[in-house]
Amino acid sequence: MELRLAIFDLDGVIVDTAKYHYLAWKRLGEKIGIEFTEQDNERLKGVSRMRSLDILLEIGKQTRTDEEKEQLAAEKNAWYVEYITQMDSSEILPGVLPFLEELRTQGIKIALGSASKNAKTILERVSLSDCFDVIVDGNLVTKAKPDPEVFTLSASLLGIEAEQTVVFEDAQAGIEAALRAKMLTIGVGEQDTLHEAHYVIPGFEEFSVADLKKVLALR
Ligand code: BG6
Ligand code: MG
């Protein structure tokens, strides 16, 4: 396989925004009388905003009309946006920048494949907007992960085949999406949670493009 494209999830792969999602959902939970823990927050990784709200309501055994849900999700998002607009490039996860630079030097295209509708704001805040050849986010796709749309669209916009693409993901739903897209799938995080991926790395600190090519050679 000739590697031509690397697609990155955003939240949990490039930056750790899970903590801000957590603070905002917890604040919403407090407002409507639902206790929301950090462990509960794990269930929201890679999951769309509306599905996340459904999970929160499920935890609190509450129901709401669609209109009320829209309003609650908007309220949570306003708080989340308050947090992310305070971000800067110091929040890029360790090893990510050198890895992106290495890909660029080797002529491998770089894409963002994120469920978030706030992806562009975050990339701007951490000064990474110019690093991506294509950005596919929650505003562009209609089907959320584990549907493969976000990844297949990234590759097709660049005219690159799935077999020439690698995906970096930290969430189970994202791993499933990448596997369904028939792309090489690298889990970023813990082996236990991400064992379905072709390969798992704890982060980018000790991972180079040469290491990636070794993984490819094993397939
Ligand atoms: C994903 C996060 O990247 O984006 C989820 O892992 C989040 O936790 C989803 O719910 C949607 O994000 P946003 O910014 O559109 O609310
Ligand atoms: Mg993620």
Strand content: 5-15%
Which cofactors or ions or other ligands sit in this model? 6-O-phosphono-beta-D-glucopyranose, magnesium ion
The rough form would be described as globular
Mean pLDDT: 96
Number of helices: 10
Count of beta strands: 6
The strands making up the biggest β-sheet line up spatially as 3-2-1-4-5-6
Helix content: 40-55%
Keywords, separated by commas or semicolons:
219 residues; alpha/beta; Rossmann fold; DNA polymerase, domain 1; 2 domains; 10 helices; 6 strands; binds 6-O-phosphono-beta-D-glucopyranose; binds magnesium ion
Q: How does this model look, in words?
A:
The chain has a 6-stranded parallel beta sheet with strand order 3-2-1-4-5-6. The protein is globular and about 50 Å long. The protein is 45% helix and 11% strand. The chain has 10 helices and 6 strands. The protein has 219 residues and is an alpha/beta fold. The chain has helices at residues 18-32, 38-42, 49-59, 66-84, 96-105, 119-125, 149-157, 172-180, 191-194, 209-218; strands at residues 5-8, 109-113, 134-136, 165-169, 184-188, 199-201. It binds 6-O-phosphono-beta-D-glucopyranose and magnesium ion.
